[in-house]
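We emphasize that the prediction below concerns an isolated chain of 197 residues; any contacts that depend on oligomerization or on bound cofactors are therefore not represented. The input was used exactly as deposited, without trimming of termini.
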Amino acid sequence: SQNIAAAAMSGSKPDILWAPHHVNRFVVCDSELSLYHIESSMNSSTELKAGSLQLSEETTATLLAINSDTPYMKCMAWYPKYDPECLLAVGQANGRVVLTGLGQDHNSKCKDLIGKEFVPKHARQCNTLAWNTLESNWLAAGLDKHRADFSVLIWDISSKYAPEVAIPMEKVRLSATDTEAGLVVTKPLYELGQNDA
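Result of the prediction step, given as a token string:
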């Protein structure tokens, strides 16, 4: 697709992640999230659909959905359980982790989580994300080191913690409606990897 070709030319490296419950689906993360479905080229017409990728003589990847709602993406992780299958966690350059979705799954559990943000005390890049496969509501975020903060934060996606009173609201940059709705969480479940410097 043009997304992958443009990323290769710009020097950025897109991240590719296979769907945990569909062997024929994957998502490409670059400036946006693009969901693809792999299918046999022999079953479709000879002309490639817009946004599709020719993977081999026999196989194409058809674009199913695009999500460009989450800017500054640095990493992502697909929710490990089947329900909600649409859920992705996206780590951003400012350290925030945002829950987002792709396409077809419109159940209420997914709708309640989409747009929820997890904000560290100090802004710095989120480098990796990992879901706990047993406690599927736990999400680990690996951040750049900071002299006054932990570099691994474990978030509970079902948490409704609002900002602590000690944090000035202008530093957190949240609207009152976000915190009231439980869409922004600023208190992790666990903090690990404190910098001793």
